[in-house]
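Please fill in the sequence for the structure shown.

STRUCTURE ENCODING:
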């Protein structure tokens, strides 16, 4: 069993597909992960299940790996031994979670934006340009900028979970680029396709951050690191050169327009 703890999860799932279902039962969804080289032990650690739940999960996995055999169930070593106590973010993590709320409000509007696409009118084109400006300036530069340039630097950037986060950000940028290219060609179908894909990608991405990554980072940062992180976030916000308020107003206006 110990040997499997140091194996990549995708490799284990390829060999024992039922492991994926077992992980899903514990809300550990590895299928959407674009990297998939995370080790079994890291996945268990990062999700911070209670000791009982972790033993239950490991026992089920052991049964899948060694059917009918009695296997000693290992306990995954944690860097910090905190029992999960619900989601309680530190101040800087709460800043990111709050920004996610505004990004999720844009995502909720995407189906309406797509249903009302009109590349032939000035207003219709402006709506796409404004949505892209929100994504590029607020979601990417303002929000992902703090994650990539500050927060992720506190950790080993070779960690699979961080590679996944970077890959998601990159993929988001390529959807936005494709939207603008399609706008030039007045190709509504492609605009709709990439906006919808962006919404699905970011929904999954934000869930991973809110529920897994940020709580795990909070558990692994010292009080003084959290204080430093907070002041670095504040400084980044002050030097961004535009007020995020205008993006809140944009979402308010769009929600009114589409009567959300
Ligand atoms: Fe992110
Ligand atoms: Fe984020």
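FILLED IN BY: designer on duty
SEQUENCE:
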């Amino acid at each position: 069993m110990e040997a499997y703890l140091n194996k990549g999860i995708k490799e284990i799932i390829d060999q024992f597909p039922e492991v994926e279902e077992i992980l899903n039962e514990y809300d550990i969804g590895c299928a959407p992960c674009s990297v998939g080289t995370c080790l079994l032990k890291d996945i268990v650690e990062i999700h911070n299940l209670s000791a009982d739940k972790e033993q239950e999960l490991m026992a089920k996995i052991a049964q899948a790996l060694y059917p009918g055999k009695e296997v000693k169930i290992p306990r995954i070593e944690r860097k910090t031994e905190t029992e999960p106590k619900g989601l309680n973010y530190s101040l800087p993590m709460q800043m990111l979670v709050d920004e996610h709320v505004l990004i999720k409000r844009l995502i909720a509007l995407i189906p309406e934006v797509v249903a009302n696409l009109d590349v032939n009118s000035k207003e219709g084109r402006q709506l796409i340009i404004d949505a892209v400006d929100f994504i590029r300036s607020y979601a990417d530069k303002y929000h992902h900028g703090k994650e990539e340039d500050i927060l992720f630097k506190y950790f080993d950037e070779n960690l699979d979970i961080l590679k996944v986060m970077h890959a998601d950000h990159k993929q988001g940028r390529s959807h936005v680029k494709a939207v603008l290219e399609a706008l030039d060609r007045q190709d509504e179908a492609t605009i709709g396709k990439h906006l919808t894909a962006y919404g699905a990608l970011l929904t999954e991405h934000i869930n991973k951050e809110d529920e897994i990554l940020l709580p795990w980072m909070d558990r692994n940062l010292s009080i003084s690191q959290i204080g430093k992180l907070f002041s670095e976030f504040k400084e980044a916000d002050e030097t961004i050169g535009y007020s995020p308020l205008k993006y809140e107003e944009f979402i308010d206006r769009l929600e009114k327009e589409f009567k959300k």
